[in-house]
Specification:
By secondary structure, this protein is α/β, with parallel strands linked by helices. The chain is built from four helices and nine strands; from the N terminus they run βαβαβαββαββββ. Bound molecules: 1-O-pyrophosphono-5-O-phosphono-alpha-D-ribofuranose.
Length: 185
């Protein structure tokens, strides 16, 4: 039973809004307990993590700060080699800080692998990762993901921050697109 009307092009709602928000509440409580008064710096990875980041931070009650990074791969061929480019860097020094990377999805793991490498070189107190979604993929690179909202099958998903050709990020749920919608741009 769907809890929201489906957007055009959506074939199936994979994770509905109440389920998302319920799980985010659980993650927030765990993170509150983990960090206490340490005031972690939450680092959202643009653009996809925006929806998750804003809901997660508002569900947390401890003191915290936020910042954002944007990265881009050079395209399909270089993505497989893990070559990623920083489009927007953090606006502060993280030395000695507790850093919490907030990702919408871990797919191949290459983006996260690169980000963790970059962040670790800056001598933070520690770096942890919370990802809303993690694809169940045998060939993903082994990368540290401390907390996962939902493991999902290896399907192309949109909504709640995730896009297809720049669209669908504003859906309040995670969905699978109708194959007929893919290619329409
Ligand atoms: C997506 C997502 C992750 C990354 C995961 O970002 O937000 O950052 O891909 O994929 P990986 O594990 O295979 O590296 P994308 O590059 O699509 O940019 P976006 O967040 O702006 O949509």
């Amino acid at each position: 039973m769907l809890s929201e009307p489906r957007a055009r092009g959506v074939a199936r709602v994979l994770i509905d809004e109440p389920t998302l928000q319920g799980r985010i509440g659980e993650l927030a409580a765990e993170l509150d307990a983990e960090y206490g008064s340490d005031a972690p710096l939450m680092v959202g990875v643009l653009n996809g993590a925006v929806a998750f980041m804003t809901d997660l931070m508002r569900a947390m009650t401890i003191p915290l700060e936020i910042d954002f990074m944007a990265v881009s791969s050079y395209g399909a061929s270089t993505r497989s080699s893990g070559v990623v480019r920083i489009l927007k860097d953090l606006s502060r020094d993280i030395e000695g800080r507790r850093v919490l990377v907030v990702e919408d999805i871990v797919d191949s793991g290459l983006t996260l692998q690169y980000l963790l490498d970059v962040l670790q070189r800056r001598n933070p107190a520690d770096v942890a990762v919370v990802a809303l979604l993690k694809k169940d993929k045998a060939d993903a690179v082994p990368v540290r993901v401390d907390r996962v909202g939902f493991p999902i099958p290896d399907e192309f998903v949109v909504g709640y921050g995730l896009d297809y050709a720049g669209r669908y990020r504003n859906l309040p749920y995670v969905a699978v697109l109708d194959p007929a919608a893919i290619g329409e741009g």
